[in-house]
Amino acid sequence: MDISKIKFDEKGLVPVIAQDYKDGTVLMLAYMNKESLQKTLEMKEMVYWSRSRKVLWHKGDTSGHIQKVKEIYYDCDGDAILARIEPVGDCACHTGNRSCFFTKML
Q1: Burial class (CB in 10 A: 0-12, 13-18, 19+), 82
Q2: Does 20 show up as a binding residue in the annotation?
Q3: pTM greater than 0.85 (yes/no)
Q4: Which of 56, 63, 65, 66 could serve as 89's disulfide partner, Cβ 3.0–4.6 Å?
Q5: Residue 2: predicted pLDDT
Q6: Please, what's the b/e burial string for 12-46 (b: 16 or more CB within 10 A of its CB; e: otherwise)?
Q7: DSSP assignment of the chain
């Protein structure tokens, strides 16, 4: 993947959707900077940028719920990333839920 195609915002970040590659479930939305994207491509495991802690965040380092990369796409504008992943364990959300999108509004 050519990182130069990605349009990072004014804070140097790009939103990333993590999707289960087997069943298509959207598991979470997070952010990456150039370094976390490069590490993700090298390791083939998801590495995000924690906006609250201001550090790289290798998903699963503390929880064990690693996200193995199967495919990565960027959108037509280059300002969003879709990562199709294989989750280790069945939890992507810090609340213990499989997906961060478990609260229904309508």
Answers
A1: middle
A2: no
A3: yes
A4: 65
A5: 79
A6: ebbebbbbbbeeeeebbebbbbeebbebbeeeebb
A7: --GGG----TTS-EEEEEEETTT--EEEEEEE-HHHHHHHHHHSB-EEEETTTTEEEETTTTTS--EEEEEEEE-TTSS-EEEEEEESSS--STTS-S-S------
59's tokens: 């998903």
pLDDT in tens, the chain (106 residues): 779 999 999 999 999 999 999 999 999 999 999 999 999 999 999 999 999 999 999 999 988 899 999 999 999 999 999 999 999 988 899 899 999 999 999 9
Which structural domains are found in the chain, ordered by start? 15-87 (3.10.20.810)
For residue 76, say whether it is annotated as part of any ligand binding site: yes
| 77 annotated as ligand-binding | yes
Cα angle for residues 8, 55, 30 (degrees, 5° grid): 50
